[in-house]
Amino acid sequence: MQLLNFTVVASGLFLLTGFLHQRLGSTDFVALGGVAQRMPLFTALFFLFALASIGIPGTNGFPAEFLLLLSVLHSHTGAGIAALLGVVLSAAYTLSFYRRALLGPIKNDGVASLIDLRRRELLIMMALAFCILLVGLYPALLLDMIQPVGTAWLQGL
After folding, report:
1. Could you say which of 5, 29, 57, 139 is the most buried, measured as most Cβ atoms within 10 Å of its Cβ?
2. 137: which residues sit within 8 A by CB, 6+ positions away?
3. How far is CA 106 from the centre of its chain?
């Protein structure tokens, strides 16, 4: 479940980064800032995908990450605590990057001339966003499909 969710979230973030690079010619962190003023749809979708990547409840990252952390804490407490620390640091870095790169004042003339997502790009991103929210709000849909395979695999161990 985690691998599937990671694939959806990572592909969405890479697509958004590609859309930004196509418009700006760079994704240099220093050149960004104020993107939200020119691209509100892009910024909102990037925020959703960032939240999914750090496992916020309501997104597809939460059920998988919760199940993994619960299992690791149960089997090896030290590794579980280290994993929890990694989750906290990842969230701090992701939200800090989001704030500095997309919010605040416009620092670059290229950013001032950006246009928001086109219809085709928005359609692609909305399909991925739908998957994030569907699995996040109703994880049993995916868990029920993978449970028999997971059970058979564990019995083989």
Report:
1. 5
2. 58
3. 24
